[in-house]
Amino acid sequence: MTTNASMTLRTLAACLLLAAAGTALAKGDPVAGANKAKSCMACHGTNFDAEADGQYPRLAGQYPDYIARVLHEYRDGGRDNPIMKGMAGSLSDQDIQDIAAYISGLPGKLHDLSRMKKK
Questions:
Q1: Complete domains list, the chain, with CATH
Q2: How far apart, in whole angstroms, are the C-alpha atoms of residue 13 and residue 19?
Q3: Torsion angle, alpha carbons of 104, 107, 110, 112, to 10
């Protein structure tokens, strides 16, 4: 094996380990989720940080269980949003888990309220 091929394989292995570590709690397959989540990028942005339009939630780095729960609620009618109902309506349980695993493993700009100054 050439040095370049060996280095490429090591780099790929390292990336896969990092991705796996970031989604250790996720039940889905983040690689499959990357493909399944492509249509979500139209509103939530290519990196799921809603950079295109601030009216859509930032999802990158969100807890996988939260993403999965919300998608189930949109799909099953627990949340009422016609756009999300249409997007989530055809997703299987496995699709939802895969998407949640992918998005939760992305670096995000989410934070809690601890940054807020007390008055």
A1: 3-108 (1.10.760.10)
A2: 10
A3: 90
Q: Supply the angle between the helices 64-76 and 93-104 in degrees, to the nearest 10.
A: 140
CA distance 16 to 31: 10
CA dist 8 and 24 (Å) reads 24
Q: Which two tokens stand for residue 68?
A: 């999965």
Dump pLDDT digits (tens) for 46-98. 899 877 677 888 899 999 999 999 999 999 999 999 999 999 999 999 999 99
Planar angle of CA 22, 36, 102, nearest 5 degrees: 5
CB atoms within 10 A of CB 38: 9
Contact in structure between 63 and 110 (CB atoms under 8 Å): no
Residue 95 amino acid letter: D
* Residue 71: both structure tokens together: 């998608």
Q: Is the pTM higher than 0.85?
A: no
